[in-house]
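Internal tracking record. Fields below are filled automatically when a chain is submitted to the structure queue. Please do not edit lines marked as system-generated. If the sequence contains nonstandard residues, flag them in the REMARKS field before resubmitting.
Queue: standard
Priority: normal
Entity type: single polypeptide chain
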Amino acid sequence: MKFAHVLPLALLATLGQGLLAEETRYGLQAHADLPLGDLKTFVDSHRGLGFGIHETIDLLDGNMLRPRLDYTRFPEATLPAGRQSASSLSLGADYLYFFEGKPEHFYLTLGLAATRWSLGTKSASLDSTHDTTRVITAFGFGYQWSAALGTELRLTNSKVSSTFKGNTMQAGVTLRF
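SYSTEM-GENERATED OUTPUT FOLLOWS
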């Protein structure tokens, strides 16, 4: 399925879920990504920065659904073989479980998304870009400081190709309106 077809389906699902939920809020997130494994080597250990938008749908009793759209960019790495760059655009959702039974304090998060990876390589003899859409999974925990401000740490796992993994440790801040 092409990435362009996923967006309308996700929007319809989000709107339908919003009608069933107790409270729906919108927000922004910003995050720093520490690359791991293959991605770390590809971007020469440069940290990525990302931002996104989300919707939080309170499903009651400490359960929440968070559809999200994220963009992450890693700085261009200069290696002996040339320059390499990486970025990703993700559309997915996270499930959040709050231990207090309401959306505050500590929570666990599990996520699933379709991610469009773009990996570029430039050298004297080569200028190529590899684009692919893959599934990304995420697991983490966070703390909701107030109704509007939260922080979280997530481990993301994505197989870019059969021999390349785009895993990251992601530290972020969320704002809800």
